[in-house]
Specification:
The protein is α/β, with parallel strands linked by helices and 756 residues long. The protein folds into four domains: 161 residues, no CATH class; 230 residues, Nucleotidyltransferase, domain 5 (2-Layer Sandwich), CATH 3.30.420.10; 97 residues, 2-Layer Sandwich (Alpha-Beta Plaits), CATH 3.30.70; 73 residues, Alpha-Beta Plaits (2-Layer Sandwich), CATH 3.30.70. It contains 28 helices and 27 strands. Strands 4-26-27-3-15-13-14 form a seven-stranded mixed sheet, with helices on both faces. Strands 6, 7, 8, 9, 10 and 12 form a six-stranded mixed sheet that branches. Helix 15 crosses helix 16. The longest helix has 28 residues. The N terminus and C terminus are likely disordered. InterPro entries: Nucleotide-bd_a/b_plait_sf, RBD_domain_sf, REX1-like_exo, REXO1/3/4-like, Ribonucl_H, RNaseH-like_sf, RNaseH_sf, RRM_dom.
Length: 756
C-alpha cells in the first residue's frame, strides 16, 4: 500500500480532443534460461502469450525494476528491448493487452486471511511474488517514470529522425501535392474524409452500385464531426476459385487497443493462401470456424454510428469484407503523391513514424500492426497538419530512401532508463490509468497517459470494462481502507498460529511399550519436523508432531490415519481449534491454487537426488524447476524438495514414478508456494501447542472493520471475475484471436499493494 498523500491540486479536463469509444541460484537460473530459449524455438507459430517464471531468490522477491523490465518487454518485444532477466514471456507478439491491477490498502496478510474469499484471483493468476516496500510513488517505480518526464509532452523519437532525414533536401512547399489539396493550415477530421465522388473514383463499394448488390452496410449513418472516433482496419486475403476472399481482419481503436482480430475461413475452395503477404497457412486456417457473415455481424455491433474507418487502400479491405461504410480515411490517398501514384504503407511508417513494419524476416504481414500504423498516420496528419508533412518532402525521401535512411526508433527505446510511457509513445500509443478521485499519483499528470478518475471502486470497475479493450496497456487502481495497526498486529499473530496449527498433527493412541525411535523415524519420513512431543495426559500415549511445512502434515494424515502402527490402529488429525475449523476446505483450495497445480512435494530425497533426477530427465517431461530448500544455519540441503512442471498432468505422472518402488519417496501435490514460506518466516513467532489458548475477541470497531473487509472481498471476488469473463480472460493467456494477456500477480508485504 502506498502511504496516503494529500489530494493533488490538478483537476480533470472536462472534454477531450476526440471522443473515444467505450468499448502475465545463478547456475540454475542460467540452465533454466537455456531451457526457456530452447522451448521458445520449439514452439509452433500459432500460440498464445505465456509467462514462465522460476524465482531462485530465497525471499521470492521481485524488485520494482525487474517488474518494469517485464512491462517494457511486453510493450515492445525482443526486437526493441532486452528480455527480462528473471522470467520468460513466450510469444510476446501475440499479446493483446497488458493490464496492471493495484489493490491499494490490501497486503499479503489480507490475501491469506481471506484466502477462501479471493477464489478467482488465486486460480486465475498463476505467478505470485513478493514485492519490496514502495517509495513515495509506487506507480512511477514500476513503470520506470523519471521525474523529468512528468511535466509536458514526452520526447518523440520520430520527430528527430524526420528533421534529420529531410534537412538536406530543398523544398518548394507550394508545389507539393499535399499543400495543393489541403492548404498549409491544419485541418479537421471531416476534411480528411473521402467524398462520395472520390470513393466512386477509387472504386469503393457504394450503396446502389451494381457490383455491390450483396454487400452489407455497417449502418453507420450518424453525423460525423471532428470529434468522431477513428478505427484502424486491415484485412488479409487469400485466392479462391471465386477470386480474393477474406482470411483475417484486425480492427484497432483510437487508444491503440485491438478490439477485433479474427481469422476467417473462406466459403470457397482456396487456390493460393498468399502466405508471403498474409502470413496465413493451411495449418493456421484448419481449426477456424468463423465465417464472413460472423465478422460482418460483429462489425455492425462494434462500430458506433459516427465511426470513421482508417486504412491503406481501404477499398480492397471493404470489398473483401463485402461491406459498405460511408466515412473513410485512406492513408494511401491522405498522403497525396505526384501523378496519382501512392506511397506504400511500409515507406510511410518509416518516414513519418520512424518505425519498421512488414519486416522481410517475418512470414507475411501483421494485420493488427498495419491497422495500428494507418491509425497512427491519420493521427499524425491531424496533429501536425499538411505543412509539416510537406516539409518532409516525401517524394524526395522515396527517391533517396537508401541514402537518406532515418534513425531506427529502437536505438532510442533500448536505453535502460526508458519508461513504459516512452515505450508506448514510441509506437504511437497511450497508457490508460483508472483510479479513484482521491488517489494522487505523478502518473496522472503525464500527457501520454489517459487518466480517468472515478468516485468509487464500483465506478473504476465499470469504466475498466468499457475502456481497457481500447488500450494496449492499462493500470487499474482500487482503494481500500487499511486495517488499524493494532488489528494488523493481532491478525499477523493469528495467521502465524493458524499455519502452525495446520502444520501440526496429533497421532495415537500408541501402546505404552511402543518403540519411540521407530515412531520418530516414521513421522520424520513425511518431512522436516520442528518439534515432536509425547503427550501423556491421555489414557494411552499420543504424539504431537509440528512440521515445518504444511505438505508434510497433510501427507502424514493421508498416509497414517486409520493405519495399524506398533500394534495399534491410530488416528492422525490436526488440533481442533477456532482457527482450524475450516482447514479441510482451505487445504482443498490450496491444492487447486493455479500456482500449486503443477508442483509436487517430495520427502526423503538424498544428496544425490538431483544428479539421479537429471540422469533420468527423459522420464520427467515438462520439468521447469527443482527447488531444494537449505538449512539457514548449516547451508545444507534439507531432505525434501519441490518439483515444478508445466502442467498438472506432467506433475501427476512424475509423482506416480517418484513414489513408486524404484524411487521409494513420499510425496503429494504442493499446497504452499515459496513466497508464503518466506512471508511466514518474517512474522513474529507464536506457538500455543500443545494445549489450547483462547484468543480474545476483537473490539467492536475492529470486528466491524473485519466484517466490512469480508463484504468487500466477497464483492470484489464477484466483480473481478465478471470483468475477466467480459474480456475473455478466464485463464492466464487465451487464444491469439481474442484479447489475451499473460498475468503476473505480486503479493507485497504489509502496507503494500497487490499487483496483478
Amino acid at each position: 500500500m502506498e502511504p496516503e498523500r494529500e489530494r493533488s491540486g490538478s483537476t480533470l479536463k472536462k472534454g477531450r480532443k476526440r471522443r473515444r469509444i467505450p468499448s502475465k541460484l545463478v547456475g540454475a537460473a542460467e540452465a533454466m534460461r537455456s531451457r526457456w530459449d530452447f522451448e521458445e524455438r520449439q514452439q509452433p507459430v500459432a500460440k498464445k502469450a505465456r509467462l514462465s517464471a522460476i524465482l531462485f531468490a530465497e525471499n521470492c522477491e521481485v524488485t520494482h525494476g525487474q517488474l518494469c523490465e517485464l512491462l517494457k518487454y511486453a510493450v515492445l518485444g525482443k526486437s526493441s528491448f532486452p528480455k527480462p532477466s528473471w522470467c520468460q514471456l513466450f510469444h510476446q507478439n501475440h499479446l493483446k493487452n497488458v493490464v496492471v491491477f493495484i489493490l491499494q490498502g490490501l497486503s499479503q496478510l489480507h490475501f491469506y486471511k481471506f484466502y477462501l474469499e479471493f477464489g478467482f484471483l488465486r486460480k486465475a493468476f498463476k505467478h505470485k511474488f513478493r514485492l519490496p516496500p514502495p517509495s513515495s510513488d509506487f506507480l512511477a517505480d514500476i513503470i520506470g517514470l523519471q521525474k523529468k518526464q512528468i511535466i509536458g509532452n514526452l520526447p518523440k523519437a520520430m520527430e528527430g529522425s524526420l528533421h534529420f532525414a529531410s534537412s538536406k533536401i530543398s523544398i518548394n512547399l507550394q508545389k507539393d501535392p499535399i499543400i495543393q489539396k489541403y492548404g498549409s493550415k491544419k485541418v479537421g477530421l471531416t476534411r480528411c474524409l473521402l467524398t462520395k465522388e472520390e470513393m466512386k473514383t477509387y472504386h469503393f463499394p457504394l450503396q446502389g452500385f451494381p457490383d455491390c448488390e450483396n454487400f452489407v452496410p455497417t449502418k453507420c449513418n450518424g453525423s460525423v464531426t471532428d470529434n468522431s472516433p477513428l478505427f484502424g482496419l486491415d484485412c488479409e486475403m487469400c485466392l479462391t476459385c471465386k477470386g480474393r476472399e477474406l482470411t483475417r481482419i484486425s480492427l484497432v481503436a483510437e487508444g491503440g487497443g485491438c478490439v477485433m482480430d479474427e481469422l476467417v475461413k473462406p466459403d470457397n475452395k482456396i487456390v493460393d493462401y498468399l502466405t508471403s503477404f498474409s502470413g496465413i497457412t493451411k495449418k493456421i486456417l484448419k481449426p477456424v470456424t468463423t465465417k464472413l457473415k460472423d465478422v460482418q455481424r460483429q462489425l455492425k455491433i462494434l462500430l458506433p454510428p459516427d465511426a470513421v474507418l482508417v486504412g491503406h487502400s481501404l477499398d480492397l479491405d471493404l470489398r473483401a469484407l463485402k461491406m459498405i461504410h460511408p466515412y473513410v480515411i485512406d492513408t494511401s490517398l491522405l498522403y497525396v503523391r505526384e501523378q496519382g501514384r501512392r506511397f506504400k504503407l511500409k515507406f510511410l511508417a518509416k518516414a513519418i513514424l520512424g518505425k519498421d513494419i512488414q519486416c522481410p524476416d517475418r512470414l507475411g504481414h501483421d494485420a493488427t500492426e498495419d491497422a495500428r500504423t494507418t491509425l497512427e498516420l491519420a493521427r499524425y496528419f491531424l496533429k501536425y497538419g499538411p505543412k509539416k508533412i510537406a516539409e518532409l518532402n516525401l517524394e524526395a525521401l522515396a527517391r533517396h530512401q537508401e541514402s537518406q535512411e532515418p534513425r531506427n526508433t529502437a536505438e532510442v527505446v533500448q536505453q535502460l532508463n526508458t519508461s513504459v510511457l516512452e515505450c508506448l509513445d514510441s509506437v504511437g500509443q497511450k497508457l490508460l490509468f483508472l483510479t479513484r478521485e482521491a488517489d494522487a499519483s505523478a502518473l496522472s499528470s503525464s500527457k501520454n497517459c489517459q487518466t480517468i478518475k472515478c468516485l468509487s471502486n464500483k465506478e473504476v470497475l465499470e469504466q475498466a470494462r468499457v475502456e481497457i479493450p481500447l488500450f494496449p496497456f492499462s493500470i487499474v487502481q482500487f482503494s481500500f481502507e487499511p486495517f488499524s495497526p493494532n488489528l494488523t498486529e493481532e491478525m499477523n499473530k493469528r495467521i502465524k498460529i493458524k499455519w502452525t496449527e495446520m502444520s501440526t498433527v496429533y497421532a495415537g493412541p500408541f501402546n505404552k511399550n511402543c518403540n519411540l525411535k521407530a515412531l520418530k523415524r516414521l513421522f520424520k519420513s513425511f518431512g522436516p519436523v520442528r518439534s515432536m512431543t509425547l503427550v501423556l495426559e491421555t489414557h494411552q500415549p499420543h504424539l504431537c508432531i509440528q512440521y515445518e511445512v504444511l505438505e508434510a502434515a497433510q501427507l502424514a494424515i493421508e498416509s497414517l490415519d486409520g493405519v495399524l502402527v506398533e500394534g495399534s490402529c491410530i488416528k492422525v488429525q490436526r488440533p481442533v481449534t477456532e482457527l482450524t475449523l475450516d482447514c479441510d476446505t482451505l487445504v482443498n483450495e490450496l491444492e487447486q491454487d493455479s500456482e500449486n497445480r503443477g508442483t509436487i512435494y517430495l520427502s526423503g530425497v538424498s544428496e544425490t537426488f538431483k544428479e539421479h533426477l537429471l540422469q533420468q530427465c527423459s522420464l520427467f517431461l515438462g520439468l521447469e524447476a527443482m527447488i531444494l530448500p537449505k538449512d539457514l544455519k548449516s547451508g545444507k540441503h534439507k531432505r525434501y524438495c519441490f518439483l515444478r512442471f508445466k502442467t498438472f498432468g506432467s506433475a501427476q505422472r512424475a509423482l506416480n514414478i517418484l513414489t513408486g518402488k524404484d524411487w521409494k519417496l513420499k510425496g503429494r501435490h504442493a499446497l504452499t508456494p515459496r513466497h508464503l514460506h518466506a512471508w511466514l518466516r518474517g512474522l513474529p513467532h507464536e506457538s500455543r501447542l500443545p494445549g489450547v489458548r483462547v484468543i480474545p475477541p476483537p473490539s467492536e470497531q475492529e470486528a466491524l472493520q473485519v466484517s466490512e473487509l469480508m463484504s468487500v472481498s466477497w464483492g470484489l471476488r464477484g466483480k473481478v471475475a465478471q470483468y475477466f469473463s467480459f474480456l475473455g480472460l478466464g485463464s492466464p493467456g487465451t487464444n491469439l484471436h481474442s484479447p489475451a494477456s499473460s498475468r503476473l500477480m505480486g503479493i507485497k508485504d504489509e502496507e503494500e499493494s497487490v499487483i496483478s
